[in-house]
UniProtKB/TrEMBL annotation:
<keyword id="KW-0560">Oxidoreductase</keyword>
<protein>
    <submittedName>
        <fullName>NADH-quinone oxidoreductase subunit C</fullName>
    </submittedName>
</protein>
<feature type="domain" description="NADH-quinone oxidoreductase subunit D">
    <location>
        <begin position="268"/>
        <end position="494"/>
    </location>
</feature>
<dbReference type="GO" id="GO:0051287">
    <property type="term" value="F:NAD binding"/>
</dbReference>
<dbReference type="InterPro" id="IPR037232">
    <property type="entry name" value="NADH_quin_OxRdtase_su_C/D-like"/>
</dbReference>
<dbReference type="InterPro" id="IPR001135">
    <property type="entry name" value="NADH_Q_OxRdtase_suD"/>
</dbReference>
<dbReference type="GO" id="GO:0016651">
    <property type="term" value="F:oxidoreductase activity, acting on NAD(P)H"/>
</dbReference>
<dbReference type="InterPro" id="IPR029014">
    <property type="entry name" value="NiFe-Hase_large"/>
</dbReference>
<dbReference type="Pfam" id="PF00346">
    <property type="entry name" value="Complex1_49kDa"/>
</dbReference>
<dbReference type="InterPro" id="IPR052197">
    <property type="entry name" value="ComplexI_49kDa-like"/>
</dbReference>
<dbReference type="GO" id="GO:0048038">
    <property type="term" value="F:quinone binding"/>
</dbReference>
Length: 500
């Protein structure tokens, strides 16, 4: 029997078709795959069976456009397993969650600490007030704590720095302050609309990204093929969301280096982009726009004319402002060689999105595992090699311009309205489905498992922030603590996308 089954993005398979390996073989197979840089772990999770725990690991091959699925079944009471993470650090966050949720212990995990403090965690005595921060005993060093209540209008998270004077030696990031139970709600809620709205609420700045992952997954579970009108709306929304958030982040980066002109101009330019969502679907963040098997807001020729005019006005001001910032010595002095993540570090932690692409890793779902209209785009990921704040700023700039080009081409020929769409069939029973999208922040992964009645048995979500929070902790080492805000904003990771 094979060690795995290979699937494509948004493909549904029978649960029984996933090979079940002995744990030792399961570990050896999946960790060996990551010796090839073309492979990375898109998800690794467990779910309970009556007398054991089933583990499912999903490794994407970005060259062959496949996802390799394998599984193992373990007895939790054995309570002592060798870890994937000791072989490859990229698995650390997944195994920490498995440990926290189910009490699985590992003999050699390098950093076995709580992830979220979920309500139904295995050890209820493990509380956020007892988080085991790393410490260095020295009279020459001091600790600085930031959060969880922040001065800015952002979400709760605690950052614990160990510093030598102004120099950061170590940063530990503690999350887990929000307990929404999103994944459990996907199982408990039975109406499709409820689940669609849940998908929109995973991360407020990634509505199109997470909702597209959900609807593509659900349609695959139901054996439904989305027509060109549905695929058009989803692809357009994803690229508009990318433009809006990247532009807003350029404004925030300028704010953190005290460049008020850039902050004001980029902030102003973000506004008409999100306002276009309001015109299109009635919500500035695109809530209500993307629905499984439906499109309540057809993209018309009139909307195409409005969007074309928007970009005609947007591009000259945007380009002028970008040309100013890239030639301003005081700005470049703060951005260049600050907050570096090396290629080796990015590979070791399984980085995705901008974090991977600024470190020379060509990792972008739009190219490697395309869906919707990306199959027609021949998308070329933008890759940098310095891994610093300026590289992350450059990628935002170039992706904004690339997305505008994609949209200008798309709106030349909007699809016709589809009036008589077939209804969705019930989800397939005893099945497994995986959906990947490339949100503006990076790779999003949703997985679903159904029971014998076709009802959701388990639902798993991965925001790209799950991979990349550790990258921020690595990036600030040996930087001055005053550079932390600009490092943090250059990643712009999600708290709620982590605290599911």
């Amino acid at each position: 029997m094979s060690d795995y089954i290979a699937i494509k993005n948004n493909e549904t398979i029978l649960l029984e078709s996933i090979p079940v390996l002995r744990y030792e073989d399961f570990l050896s197979f999946n960790t060996s795959l990551l010796s090839n840089e073309a492979n990375h772990c898109v998800h690794y999770f467990g779910y309970p069976l009556p007398d054991k725990l089933k583990l499912i690991c999903c490794i994407a091959n970005d060259e062959e456009n496949t996802i390799l699925i394998s599984s193992s079944e373990i007895k939790v009471e054995l309570n002592s397993l060798p870890s994937f993470s000791a072989q490859h650090l990229a698995f650390h966050i997944f195994e920490r969650e498995i440990h926290e949720n189910f009490g699985v212990a590992y003999t050699d995990h390098p950093w076995l600490k709580p992830v979220r403090y979920a309500f139904d965690r295995a050890d209820r005595n493990s509380t956020i007030g007892q988080y085991p921060f790393y410490q260095i005993n020295s009279e020459e060093l001091h600790e600085v704590g930031v959060g969880p209540i922040h001065a800015g209008v952002i979400e709760p998270g605690h950052f614990r720095f160990i510093c030598n004077g102004e120099q950061i030696l170590h940063l530990e990031i503690q999350l887990g302050y929000q307990h929404r139970g999103i994944e459990n709600l996907f199982v408990r809620k039975k109406k499709l609309l409820q689940r669609n709205i849940l998908a929109e609420s995973i991360a407020g700045d990634t509505v199109a990204g997470h909702t597209t992952a959900f609807v593509n997954l659900w349609e695959s579970l139901c054996g439904y093929t989305a027509d060109d009108d549905l695929q058009y709306a989803r692809t357009l929304a994803l690229e508009l969301e990318r433009i809006a958030i990247h532009t807003g982040d350029l404004s925030a980066i300028c704010t953190d280096i005290a460049y008020q002109l850039g902050s004001s101009v980029f902030g102003r330019l973000r506004t008409p982009v999100i306002n276009f969502f309001q015109v299109w679907c009635g919500n500035r963040m695109a809530k209500g726009l993307i629905r499984a098997g439906k499109n309540h807001f057809h993209f018309s020729g009139e909307l195409a004319d409005q969007l074309r005019k928007l970009f005609d006005d947007f591009e000259p001001d945007y380009q002028e402002m970008w040309n100013e910032i890239k030639e301003l010595p005081s700005a470049l002095a703060r951005l260049e060689k600050t907050g570096v993540v090396t290629h080796e570090q990015a590979v070791s932690i399984g980085a995705v999105g901008m974090t991977a692409k600024t470190a020379g890793i060509k990792r972008d779902i739009r190219a490697s595992h395309p869906h919707d209209l990306y199959r027609q785009f021949n998308h070329q990921p933008i890759v940098k090699h310095h891994g610093d704040v300026y590289s992350r700023t450059q990628i935002r700039n170039e992706e904004i311009l690339q997305s505008i080009d994609y949209i200008r081409e798309m709106i030349k020929n909007p699809p016709d309205v589809h009036i008589n769409r077939p209804p969705l069939s019930p989800p397939k029973p005893d099945s497994f489905t995986l959906s990947l999208t490339e949100g503006w922040r990076g790779e999003i992964c949703h997985c679903a498992i159904t029971n014998g009645n076709g009802e959701l048995l388990h639902y798993k979500i991965k925001d790209p922030s799950m991979h990349n929070w550790l990258a921020l902790a690595l990036a600030v080492r040996n930087n001055e603590i005053s550079d932390f805000p600009i490092c943090n904003k250059s990643f712009d990771l999600s708290y709620c996308g982590h605290d599911l």
